[in-house]
Specification:
- The structure holds two protein chains of two kinds.
- Helices cover about 65% and strands about 0% of the residues of chain A.
- Chain A has nine helices and no strands.
- The longest helix of chain A is centred in the first third of the chain and has 23 residues.
- Chain A is globular.
- By secondary structure, chain B is mostly helical.
- Chain B is built from six helices and no strands.
- In chain B, helix 1 crosses helix 3 and helix 2 packs across helix 3.
- Chain B is elongated.
- The chains are: A mainly alpha, B mainly alpha.
- At the A-B interface, helix 2, helix 3, helix 6, helix 7 and helix 9 of A face helix 1, helix 3 and helix 4 of B.
Chain lengths: ~200, ~200
């Protein structure tokens, strides 16, 4: 018996997809969007705090990168370039729409409410508390200065390395490390009275 | 919690927690951890914040929401990026070379005897324009009259325009005039149904 293994075509690189897209290949856009939409959304959501605004920021970010391909000169990866544009779009949108005020209203109920039973940050078994925990974390993030918040989100949510975060934000790796250190300290100070860490 | 901001090695604890230090810095931190329980606790606290964030991702949008976003991206990209080349399948035809002001001024093409452009017969792509009898010029700024051309569509191939000084009017046509002003329009032709009969 002959066994034939079907092999899928190797995934095209971002550069190849961009070149196809520039030639008018819509499927290249489909693939690029599928590849990065979740990552872009996580960053935008954490910076904005709600789905609607986050999707708007993702949309605006993708449109900006795809209509300014000439500006992408390969000095960074497409991923870091995209996330720079997405995070800029999210922060701009947040300023326009008053993110902090909205967030404060949304989490009013959870501000100082004690959770029903002790919850630890490493306990994955409580989906209802997880939503509360996410709200509390969003509250805590809102108290950070914008540079620290953005650095933390890019590293923790987008899971970028220090080098990639530095590339996105056009700062040094040392600055990335410093911002993360102080951001996580401030988050801990905010959350410690509210949840068991 | 460690608060001594004057200690630059404190920041290294973040890098150590994330596995981002080079060998030299890593060794320095490990030496410190061996003698400082506070430093070890800080490293763990730094890691815990990152784990907390990763354990509470935002809820995923629905596929319908994603489809809507993607459709809007495609529509906006098409609208904003005329420089994208036409592709085999998806983008459709693009109009190029018509400025908004020229369109607003009622730009049409005129074919005047003596410089009718040669129309290629190789099936080359035509640039769609409106015919002169389909346009009524309501008003036009002086600055736009430099680009006013009247003719018959479709125009294939390159257009060679003559300047005012290169054209001699042999048959005076009522309402047709040229001016000697700098950069005058080549010809002003009244855009009505009788204009063709008046041209020689």
């Amino acid at each position: 018996m002959v066994v034939v293994t079907a092999t899928s075509a190797p995934a095209q690189s971002d550069d190849e997809l961009l070149a196809r897209f520039a030639d008018g290949d819509r499927e290249a856009l489909d693939e690029l969007f599928r590849r990065y939409r979740a990552l872009a959304y996580r960053v935008a959501y954490r910076l904005l705090g709600n789905e609607s605004d986050a999707l708007d920021a993702v949309q605006e970010g993708f449109v900006k990168v795809l209509t300014h391909l000439d500006g992408f000169q390969g000095r960074s990866t497409f991923k870091t370039w995209l996330l720079r544009v997405i995070s800029n779009a999210a922060l701009d949108l947040g300023r326009q729409r008053g993110r902090r005020e909205t967030l404060s209203l949304e989490v009013l109920d959870t501000g100082n409410r004690e959770l029903s039973h002790p919850f630890t940050a490493d306990d994955p078994t409580l989906p209802l508390e997880r939503a509360d925990l996410r709200h509390l974390l969003d509250e805590a993030l809102a108290t950070l200065p914008e540079p620290q918040r953005r650095t933390f989100v890019l590293h923790a949510d987008a899971e970028l390395s220090y080098r990639e975060v530095a590339e996105v934000l056009e700062i040094s790796i040392g600055t990335v490390m410093s911002r993360l250190y102080y951001a996580r300290q401030k988050l801990r100070v905010y959350l410690a009275p509210r949840i068991k860490l | 919690m460690m608060q001594r901001k004057s200690d630059p090695d404190l920041v290294l604890l973040a890098g150590f927690a994330d596995g981002e230090l080079d060998a030299v810095a890593r060794d320095r931190v490990e030496a410190r951890l061996a003698s400082s329980p506070d430093a070890a606790a800080e490293v763990e606290a730094q890691r815990r914040m990152t784990r907390l964030c990763q354990a509470t991702p935002p809820p995923e949008p629905s596929e319908a929401a994603w489809a809507g976003v993607q459709a809007r991206i495609l529509a906006e990209t098409r609208r904003k990026a005329p420089a994208l080349r036409r592709g085999p399948g998806g983008w459709g035809r693009w109009l190029a070379g018509l400025s908004a002001s020229a369109v607003a001024a009622g730009l049409v093409f005129a074919l005047v005897h003596g410089f009718r452009p040669e129309i290629p017969t190789d099936g080359g792509e035509a640039m769609p324009v409106v015919a002169h009898h389909e346009v009524e010029i309501i008003s036009i700024d002086d600055a736009d009259t430099v680009a006013l051309v009247v003719g018959e569509p479709p125009v294939r191939g390159p257009i060679v325009l003559a300047s005012a000084g290169e054209v001699t009017l042999e048959t005076p046509i009522p309402d047709l005039r040229m001016e000697d002003a700098p950069n005058p329009p080549m010809l002003w032709v009244p855009v009505d149904g009788d204009s063709e009969d008046k041209r020689e």
